[in-house]
Inverse folding.
């Protein structure tokens, strides 16, 4: 589940926009049945928050800065195991930043 919002500022700051996103995941689990045992791999619920700020420089150029997973939460996007490969857990992305420039002709 996710929820994101973007606000375009007013007045002298009308070329700016700011926003955020919160993604929430309920518990995640995988029941593993091997030939000699069975067990459950489980992760509790978690939330990941992102922020963004953008600026429309002119009618051609738009800049945007994104900060993802701002609290640097460690979490899994998938959990599992196999008798051949062992653990097949997949970590979510750590905190990251991206600056993008979009130019329209």
């Amino acid at each position: 589940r996710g929820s994101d919002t973007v606000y375009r500022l007013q007045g002298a700051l009308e070329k700016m926009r700011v926003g955020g996103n919160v993604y929430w995941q309920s518990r995640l689990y995988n029941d593993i049945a091997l030939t000699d045992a069975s067990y459950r791999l489980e992760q509790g619920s978690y939330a990941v928050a992102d922020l963004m700020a953008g600026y429309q420089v002119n009618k051609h150029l738009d800049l945007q800065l994104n900060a993802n997973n701002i609290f640097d939460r460690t979490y899994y996007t998938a959990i599992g195991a196999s008798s051949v490969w062992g653990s097949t857990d997949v970590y979510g992305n750590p905190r990251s930043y991206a600056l993008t420039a979009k130019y329209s002709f």
